[in-house]
Design brief:
TIM Barrel; three-stranded parallel β-sheet; 6 strands
Length: about 260
């Protein structure tokens, strides 16, 4: 293979939060550091004024392959300093005016969940030009997020939302990966006011099979955020499975609104 992304050795050697999938195995990223990624997003946003809101999913890596493979990299703990660096980097590079934060949603309500259930989310027009950062919680291990939530039960002063479950003060954002089996749960959560992410494809199964069943279930579920690894066709498995971006970066959600014509 000759078309691999560069390794960016110099940047990876510097202090700071790095961006990769799996240490030692899948570490080639278009932007090797978090600050590099944010800089690219800022440049794009400045060049694309009034763009649709951008949802940025963040997944802190809590473990590596060192317990299974001798000599593999030991993942440093994602501690308070790391979480604070994420927040500080987001604010310093993008700027407050480009962010929609938990504080913006909560307003004067007692909890972030109360604000979500009150459906205080901005309109498309109000959210244009902004970014929403959303932490995924691997294995719903919220203990690992104690440094981010301590003293901030509704994410007061934080830059990013954190995945949660009903009944938790910080919950405005939920994750239901498989719309084939959890479509009803997704619809119920969206109707109540939660922001929901699901997946059009999981691992490589759907693309290898050329099956759009999970994708179509995700689209029908009403989830506001749908992730895919396959934006164009043909895909790397030489079939037509894909999920193209929505026209103009958004679609009307038929689950909660009357839509004259929407995808």
């Amino acid at each position: 293979m000759t078309d691999l992304a560069p390794i960016y050795r110099d940047e990876l050697a510097k202090p700071g939060v790095k961006v990769l999938h799996v240490a030692d195995l899948d570490f080639r990223s278009q932007c090797p550091t978090f600050r590099h990624c944010l800089t690219l997003m800022k440049q794009w946003s400045d060049a694309t004024p009034n763009h649709s809101p951008v949802f940025v999913l963040l997944e802190p890596k809590l473990s590596g392959l060192d317990k299974a493979i001798p000599g593999a990299t030991q993942i440093p703990p994602f501690d308070k300093a790391a979480f604070d660096e994420v927040d500080d980097s987001i604010r310093s590079i993008l700027g407050r005016d480009k962010l929609f934060t938990p504080d913006d949603l909560r307003g004067d309500l007692p909890t972030l969940e109360a604000a979500a259930l009150a459906k205080r989310w901005p309109t498309l027009g109000q959210a244009r030009g902004k970014f929403l950062f959303l932490f995924l919680v691997p294995g719903m291990n919220l203990k690992a997020f104690a440094p981010y939530l301590d003293g901030r039960p509704s994410l007061q002063g934080r830059a990013a939302f954190v995945q949660g479950q009903a009944g938790m003060a910080h919950t405005a954002f939920m994750l239901f990966d498989n719309a084939l089996t959890r479509g009803a749960e997704i619809g119920d959560a969206v109707r109540k006011g939660y922001l929901v992410r699901t997946r059009a494809d999981i691992d490589t199964v759907d693309a290898r099979d050329g099956s759009g069943k999970r994708r179509d279930a995700a689209l029908a579920s009403g989830a506001q955020i749908i992730s895919t690894d396959y934006l164009t066709a043909p895909n790397v498995y030489a079939n037509d499975y894909h999920l193209a971006p929505f026209a103009q970066g958004w679609r009307c959600n038929r689950l909660v609104y009357r839509c004259s014509s929407a995808r």
